[in-house]
């Protein structure tokens, strides 16, 4: 009859010791989780310097790039490019495209209108509509035409004059590139753009 209390006490004491160990471990885990380092040897990831094996770009930001025969340049629409030709220099900019208002369902092709500006001219710059071409993201070539009622440009642009010209082409939506080839051979400057109809 006296053995039952002994067994019961042993169980209680074992349970008490086990519960104490579990509580001690839980408190230790909470204490270590609450600790945060006061000083770290490395800054947070967002503020670390770039790895040394990555290339660096030493080119100044927001400067006008220069294009010339044998040294073509690629720009984004709205960015001016200094174009140096054997006969003169000019600052060339293309903006656009402007497209008609959205209609539903959207048509497979839209009329994309571009504004071409040639300014800060020195010397003589040849201006021929055929020197401008457009390609879409599939590599198809389009030949822009003058916007309706647009006056054809003079074949040459001289110092002190500025040319503002609007051209358009019917083309699919998506990415494209407008090229200018004022001298024979490959284009000297081109502008990336996106045709959107939404």
The pLDDT mean sits at: 82
Percentage of helical residues? 10-25%
The count of strands amounts to 12
Structural class: alpha+beta
| Quaternary state of the chains | single chain
Shape: globular
State Rg. 35 Å
- Please describe the biggest sheet, giving its number of strands, its sense, and whether it closes into a barrel: 7 strands, mixed
Low-confidence stretches: 1-7, 32-37
Q: In percent, how much strand structure appears in the residues?
A: 35-45%
Given the structure, what is the number of helices?
1
SSE string: HEEEEEEEEEEEE
Q: What separation lies between the terminal Cα atoms?
A: 91 Å
How would you summarize this macromolecular structure in one to three sentences?
It contains 1 helix and 12 strands. The chain has one helix spanning about 5-35, and strands at about 65, 75, 80-85, 90-100, 110-125, 130-135, 140, 145, 155-160, 165-170, 175-180, 190-195.
How does this structure look, described?
This protein is α+β, with helices and mostly antiparallel strands. The chain contains 1 helix and 12 strands. The strands form 2 sheets. Strands 1, 3, 4, 5, 8, 9 and 10 form a 7-stranded mixed β-sheet that branches. A hairpin with an 8-residue loop joins strand 11 and strand 12. The longest helix has 32 residues. The termini are far apart. 17% of the residues are buried. The N terminus is likely disordered.
